[in-house]
Amino acid sequence: MASGKKSLKSWTNTIKVMVINGATLDDKEVEPLAKLLAASLALPVNINTATAAELAAVPGLEPSLAAAIVRYREKNGESSTVLELTASRASARTCLGKFPGG
To answer: How far lies 58's CA from each of 46, 61, 74, in Å?
Structure first.
């Protein structure tokens, strides 16, 4: 992974290893910390080439919306902006508005 950027799953595993090695952290703190790290240091995803699974790995992007993005792309071609994807779906606008260009 470039520049030390990791996915949510990878951050969760890293934190668990740190706890095993002596880091002081409650079990209930692992998931919020991993989500924060993944959101702050997430790998960039190309919305025009990513699979539904790759899109669903983006924190805050539900698998159903990821699949809808891929279906839209297959039907309408590549998008030049996130805004193009949100033209017809209020839920997509809400979710994708969190991302750069949204």
So the answer is: 11, 6, 20
